[in-house]
């Protein structure tokens, strides 16, 4: 299959490109990096022309501005990059009868529910990043019936720049650790998410999916597990409230997601603890 992949230079995009390359012709695009096509999706004409030239059979739309605090400081940019650019692709794919997969986030939910969110729960974002991703979801679902909406959460990947690396680096440097104990979601390994997406597109079963590693924990519990499995079991972590951690964007307090639709297709990610151990083994071997 000929697949156009946006955000191919990112952590998830790079892993997905690698996993798909053996079976598919992947047309990789991004605004930076070593990709076949440099593409700014906020430019409708450029996006339309590239799709016309490459004639993909499927578009995997991973490109996004994922800096949640940056989105809070510049919500108009967030809406443009995550929402309007996605609306461009929704229109283009609808006009050309091309299926599209869009990667969204647990932050489309408000965190007020006391049970994991299912695929049919109504989004109600409470911050600019969540709103921009929800805008993108609506743009696709209202225009192109051939769509997959994939929501995930708390991604950790090789290459640095995520929560796991930050916690380990702070412990190695002997810095005091203070971690929020009342924000709960599903830590998810990008390698597992990429594999799940690769399986999903083979089903041609359109719809909304929550693809996360199984199990939900607080940020504090996740940090504790990271240190315990990294040789820092004696390193203390102070528990703090989410309101004590000052930041521009306040995420939903309780936003675990239940993978009901994916499980019905035989697509299920392993428990987050197993995924974390696999991640740390791979880091040690690198």
Helices and strands, with pairings:
Elements (H helix, E strand, L loop, with lengths): L1 E5 L4 H10 L4 E6 L6 E2 L5 H11 L3 E4 L6 H6 L1 H21 L4 E6 L22 H14 L5 E6 L2 E2 L6 H10 L4 E4 L3 E2 L2 E2 H14 L3 E4 L6 E2 H10 L8 E4 L20 H4 L7 H14 L1
Parallel strand pairs: 1-2, 1-4, 2-3, 4-5, 5-6, 6-11, 7-10, 8-13
Antiparallel strand pairs: 9-12
Helix pairs in contact: 1-7, 2-4, 4-5
Salient structural properties:
286 residues; alpha/beta; Rossmann fold; seven-stranded parallel beta sheet; two-stranded parallel ribbon; globular
- Overall SS class: alpha/beta
- The helix count comes to 10
Order of secondary-structure elements: EHEEHEHHEHEEHEEEHEEHEHH
Name the overall outline. Answer: globular
Structure description:
This protein has 286 residues and is α/β, with parallel strands linked by helices. The chain has a domain of 200 residues: NAD(P)-binding Rossmann-like Domain (Rossmann fold, 3-Layer(aba) Sandwich). The protein has a 7-stranded parallel β-sheet with strand order 3-2-1-4-5-6-11, sandwiched between helices. Strands 7-10 form a two-stranded parallel sheet. Helix 1 links the parallel strand 1 and strand 2. Helix 2 runs parallel beside helix 4 and helix 4 packs parallel to helix 5. The longest helix is centred in the first third of the chain and has 21 residues. The radius of gyration is 19 Å and the shape is globular. The two termini are 32 Å apart.
